[in-house]
Amino acid sequence: MSDYLVKALAYDGSIRAYAVRTTETVSEAQRRHATWRTASAALGRAMTAGVMMGAMLKGDEKLTIKIDGGGPLGPILVDANAKGAVRGYVSNPHVDFEANEHGKLDVRRAVGTDGLLVVVKDVGLRDFFSGQVPLVSGELGEDFTYYFATSEQTPSSVGVGVLVNPDDSILAAGGFILQIMPRTEDAIITKLEERLKTIAPISSLIEQGLNPEQILDELFGQENVKIIETMPVKFQCNCSKQRFSDAIVGLGKHEIRAMIEEDGQAEAHCHFCNQKYLFSKEELEQLEQEAK
Ligand SMILES: [Zn+2]
């Protein structure tokens, strides 16, 4: 089953909702980076939130999320666009711990709680919106909830979950973001708050095999949800050998000559997707000629 995201309105437009299944997307990240279980959960939660936040953008807009809590994972980086593409990595993929006191992967310990969640939105024409909040939990769902409330003044609830098999593969991943619109009646807010207290954790919902529409039905009741858009999502990186060639040309003749003489070749590495590109001596000499 491929991953997809739904955008919806609930209670006659009082609440904007996003729900997504990211099992394949997080699996792709896990395979590319060979992340261990706790690292997979942290990266997968961040990517799941990221792809939903990307879906809030328009056209060619995109965003980057950086989470650095000072924990053993090091910084987590996630990029997403408005078209369902997301990519991401953790600085130290080989991090795993015993389960925490709730029997869950200890994402807080891996991420750390002494640091920031930073979101930078590239909204075109060299215009950037940037917001940051201190990490309040390290479990990431609550941190994104805090980000929306504080940095975007949008009362929200963010649930993200990743289940990992004993062999490190991803069993299931997904999440939701609910946002309260400015004129929402108090009665609806109270109802939603009550529901969020009683509903099973998002990881249980996805483990039960609920699709994004069914997750929203669980939250609001089927009769109260109106799906307005469905969008496929996937792990996708926009790197290419050509992009790295351009970057090497940008280093200038002097630097390229040094590479040729020191190593006789060069290897470029994309952090986001872990793809490596090898440049032979002949290719470097070609780029040297193009360079200034
Ligand atoms: Zn890449």
| Helix content percent band | 25-40%
Q: For the record, give the distance between the C-alpha atoms at the N and C termini, rounded to a whole number.
A: 49 Å
In total, how many beta strands?
Answer: 13
Determine Rg (CA atoms, Å). Answer: 21 Å
Beta strand %:
25-35%
Structural class given helices, strands, pairing? alpha+beta
Q: How many strands, what sense, and barrel or not for the largest sheet?
A: 6 strands, mixed
The number of helical segments is 10
Order of helices and strands: EEHHEEEHEEHEEHHHEEHHEEH
Ligands in the model, by name, code or SMILES, are: zinc ion
Morphology call = globular
Task: Indicate the mean pLDDT.
Answer: 95
Strand order of the largest sheet: 7-6-3-4-5-11
Could you name the ranges where pLDDT drops below 50 across 5 or more consecutive residues? Answer: none
Task: Write structural notes for this entry.
This protein has 292 residues and is α+β, with helices and mostly antiparallel strands. Helices cover 36% and strands 29% of the residues. The protein is built from ten helices and 13 strands. The strands form three sheets. The chain has a six-stranded mixed β-sheet, with helices on one face. A five-stranded antiparallel β-sheet has the order 8-9-2-1-10, with helices on both faces. It has a two-stranded antiparallel sheet with strand order 12-13. Strand 1 and strand 2 form a beta hairpin. The longest helix has 18 residues. The radius of gyration is 21 Å and the shape is globular. The site of zinc ion has 6 residues, from loops.
